[in-house]
Structure formats: structure tokens, C-alpha cells
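quick q for whoever's on today - can somebody do inverse folding on this one?? i tried earlier but teh output was garbage lol. C-alpha cells:
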């Protein structure tokens, strides 16, 4: 069941806070899987329900394609989190999250690029 907008606000706020905390401790320049693991730990420690590398199938016409994509993190079964450690977040990264949101019928995603000097420059909210 998808959460309403007012219910999503505290969840997205907690996820953003966790990303800032992870970046404050680790800084830029590491691999995405390091940030993903740290985010997972931070979110679980804060009491949120988190699924990591959550696998989804895609239905193409009548054909099911199992394991077609993996969400980096799915928080409280509502917020899709995509972790990046790249020079620049490209439009394709944002489109990727939009596609994930459509596929699993959720409304909000967050893209975090940890390869920035200040985390506020690496936070992107995606919504449908």
C-alpha cells in the first residue's frame, strides 16, 4: 500500500538525514556499495524498515522477466532510494528512478550522489 504525501514527509526527511550523516562520516570518493551499506545501517538504526537490493520482475506484455532490476533501497515499502557515487547525476539516473516508481506503483524516490563536497548538492527528489 502506497503512503499518502503527508505520511511520506517524515520518511523522506529521515532518509535525507541518514544520507547527510553517512556523507559527514565517510565523505566523497568511495564506491556506491559502501554508501549503500552505511545508509542501510543508518536507516535500520533509526527504526525504519529497509529492503536492500530488492529484486523485481517486469511483465512485458504476457511475458514475465524475473529479476529485471534491483532497487538499492526500499524504505518503509514506500520510498525508493538510488545510491550514486558519480561525477554528476545525469538525467538517465533520474529517469531510472521514475521507471522504478512506475513499476512498483510508488510515488517518491530519492537519488543520492555521494561524490560531492557537500551532500546538499547530491540530493535529488523524484516523484510521479
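ok took a stab at it. sequence:
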Amino acid at each position: 500500500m502506497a503512503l499518502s504525501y503527508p505520511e511520506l514527509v517524515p520518511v523522506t526527511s529521515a532518509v535525507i538525514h541518514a544520507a547527510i550523516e553517512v556523507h559527514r562520516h565517510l565523505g566523497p570518493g568511495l564506491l556506491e556499495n559502501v554508501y549503500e551499506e552505511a545508509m542501510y545501517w543508518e536507516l535500520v538504526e533509526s527504526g525504519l524498515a529497509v529492503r536492500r537490493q530488492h529484486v523485481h520482475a517486469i511483465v512485458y506484455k504476457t511475458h514475465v522477466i524475473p529479476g529485471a532490476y534491483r532497487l538499492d533501497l526500499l524504505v518503509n515499502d514506500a520510498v525508493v532510494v538510488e545510491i550514486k557515487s558519480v561525477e554528476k547525476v545525469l538525467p538517465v539516473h533520474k529517469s531510472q528512478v521514475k521507471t522504478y516508481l512506475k513499476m512498483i506503483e510508488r510515488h517518491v524516490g530519492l537519488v543520492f550522489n555521494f561524490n560531492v563536497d557537500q551532500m546538499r548538492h547530491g540530493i535529488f527528489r523524484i516523484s510521479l
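fwiw The beta strands are 50-60, 63-75, 79-84, 108-113, 123-127. also Residues 5-127 form a domain with the Trna Endonuclease; Chain: A, domain 1 fold (CATH 3.40.1350). so keep that in mind when u check it
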